[in-house]
Write a structure and sequence with these properties.
Blueprint: E1 4-6, E2 12-13, E3 26-27, E4 30-36, H1 43-48, E5 54-60
Antiparallel strand pairs: 1-2, 1-3, 4-5
Length: about 60
């Protein structure tokens, strides 16, 4: 199973529905990966408006 990124929140998962926002608009065409471990303490998470731990794509086509 290939990883897919959500076009809405950029969360990367291997399912057909995004576990972060429950949308089904996923793409396997994405680039760059950011791993958010501490969303409350991370400046990157604040800049990306991420509130959950996980892997996120920087760009989703």
């Amino acid at each position: 199973m290939t990883d897919k990124a959500c076009r809405i929140c950029h969360f990367i998962s291997d399912g057909s529905i995004c576990p972060n926002c429950d949308e089904s608009d996923l793409s396997d065409d994405f680039s760059g990966i950011v791993v958010i471990i501490d969303p409350e303490g991370s400046a990157v998470a604040r800049a990306m408006k991420v509130k959950k731990k996980g892997h996120y794509a920087l760009r989703v086509r």
